[in-house]
């Protein structure tokens, strides 16, 4: 069985490109060119150099000694929190901005919910001197003022989406509308392994640098490139896709995807798509998504903005359906405690998204000589207010 996208962008029964006809030329131009562009030597040189000099890669693979002692197993943290801008998202936006330049695009659009992807996009647009328009729900603009300020400082225009629930899905609709109106000069930077083919495959390839580095670094530290487990949180699924990528076809390496259970999987306030989702189409891709019996998308909930998404990308839907990855879910409370635990044990303040991945050590037992790699997708600076309120700091 293959766990990568086929030529039509399918992962098993999931994926594809379910788009309005008006969007076809834009997506088709990207689909027809992305692999050839990514294989160009000059593209790879520029991409690798920016990852090194600008993002600060390779990020360390850090042996977490005190955390390992607590759970009586060998835990390594892949430190994506040390990337420029504070999370893995920039690996993808660097790749896509280079792609946009190769395709002669001069204008960049993006949608953002909590603002993390908007900031990562505004960052690379500033780096390359390209115009940047970020669509964001009106309510999210109010809730995420610091990220809105960051985007403005970086030179982006933030356009409020005023329709519907005035959140991420409405911002996505606005971005798609913009792209349809500007097919020639504009590239749409999607922030996770979601959207119509070729986005999930392209984003997974850009993020695969994470598992490539893990292989090399683990060989240096342990004399073998394969850990026993790789663990990552899943919102749309891009940091998990990057951490899993090189191990997809190595069954000895167990993959664990951690979703946000919010206030409890069956509380009505959750984002645990693998448990609650059914097959449907969201953002141009056939995948698992949370929906009402008549197919309306259900509003998801998680304390962490990055996991607050009603679907998962098609690669993850397939990893779940095929059993290749184990899917676990973690509540707000479990994640918050695991986050604080990492602060006290290792001196690292994690993003609340990443704290979900860390929380599974309380439930799942590992053997003392198991090598467990946790992808620490981001740092907790952006979550300080949530930590302050939650713990009464
Ligand atoms: C956005 C974000 C996520 C969730 O996105 P994925 O595409 O699932 O990786 C996870 N962690 C952090 C720190 C994020 O900013």
Number of helices: 16
Uncertain residue ranges: none
| Strand tally | 14
The ordered string of helix (H) and strand (E) elements is EEHHEHEHEHEHHEHEHHEHEHEEHEHHEH
Distance between the termini: 49 Å
- Spell out which ligands are present: pyridoxal-5'-phosphate
Average pLDDT taken over every residue: 97
Q: Indicate the CATH topology of the largest domain.
A: Rossmann fold
Structure description:
By secondary structure, the protein is α/β, with parallel strands linked by helices. It folds into 2 domains: 16-50 and 89-203, Rossmann fold, CATH 3.40.50; 57-86 and 208-391, Rossmann fold (3-Layer(aba) Sandwich). 42% of the residues lie in helices and 18% in strands. The chain has helices at 24-39, 41-55, 65-71, 89-102, 116-128, 138-143, 145-153, 168-181, 199-207, 209-222, 238-244, 273-276, 314-322, 332-346, 352-358, 384-391, and strands at residues 10-11, 14-15, 61-63, 74-79, 107-112, 131-137, 157-161, 186-188, 229-233, 254-262, 278-282, 285-289, 325-331, 371-376. The strands form 4 sheets. Strands 3-4-14-9-10-13 form a 6-stranded mixed sheet, with helices on both faces. The protein has a 4-stranded parallel sheet with strand order 7-6-5-8, with helices on both faces. The termini are far apart. The structure holds pyridoxal-5'-phosphate. The site of pyridoxal-5'-phosphate (PLP) has 18 residues, from α11 and α15. Belongs to the TrpB family. Its EC number is 4.2.1.20.
């Amino acid at each position: 069985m293959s766990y990568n996208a086929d030529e039509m962008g399918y992962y098993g029964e999931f994926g594809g490109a379910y788009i309005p006809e008006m969007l076809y030329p834009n997506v088709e131009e990207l689909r027809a060119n992305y692999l050839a562009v990514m294989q160009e030597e000059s593209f790879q040189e520029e991409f690798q150099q920016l990852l090194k000099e600008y993002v600060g890669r390779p990020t360390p693979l850090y042996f977490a000694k005190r955390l390992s002692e607590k759970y009586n197993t060998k835990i390594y943290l892949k430190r994506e929190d040390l990337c420029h801008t504070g999370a893995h998202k920039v690996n993808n936006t660097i790749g896509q901005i280079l792609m946009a330049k190769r395709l002669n695009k001069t204008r960049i659009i993006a949608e953002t919910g909590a603002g993390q992807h908007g900031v990562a996009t505004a960052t690379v647009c500033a780096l390359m001197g390209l115009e940047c328009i970020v669509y964001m729900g009106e309510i999210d603009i109010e809730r995420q003022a610091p990220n809105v300020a960051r985007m403005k400082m970086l030179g982006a225009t933030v356009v409020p989406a005023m329709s519907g629930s005035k959140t991420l899905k409405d911002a996505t609709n606005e971005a798609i509308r913009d792209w349809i109106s500007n097919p020639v000069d504009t590239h749409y930077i999607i922030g996770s392994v979601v959207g119509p083919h070729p986005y999930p495959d392209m984003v997974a390839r850009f993020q695969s640098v994470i598992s490539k580095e893990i292989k090399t670094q683990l060989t240096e530290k342990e004399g073998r490139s394969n850990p026993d487990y790789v663990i990552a949180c899943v919102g749309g699924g891009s940091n998990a896709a990057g951490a899993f990528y090189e191990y997809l076809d190595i069954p000895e390496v167990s993959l664990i995807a951690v979703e946000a259970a919010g206030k409890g999987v069956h509380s009505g306030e959750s984002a645990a798509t693998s448990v609650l989702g059914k097959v449907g189409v969201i953002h141009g891709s056939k995948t698992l998504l949370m929906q009402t019996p008549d197919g309306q998308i259900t509003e998801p909930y998680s304390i962490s903005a990055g996991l607050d998404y009603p679907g998962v990308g098609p690669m993850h839907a397939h990893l779940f359906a095929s059993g290749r990855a184990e899917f676990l879910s973690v509540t707000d409370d479990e994640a918050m405690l695991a986050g604080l635990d990492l602060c006290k044990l290792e001196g690292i303040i994690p993003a609340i998204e990443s704290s979900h991945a860390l929380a599974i050590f309380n439930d799942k037992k590992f053997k003392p000589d198991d090598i467990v790699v946790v992808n620490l997708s981001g740092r907790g600076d952006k979550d300080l207010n949530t930590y302050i309120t939650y713990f009464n700091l």
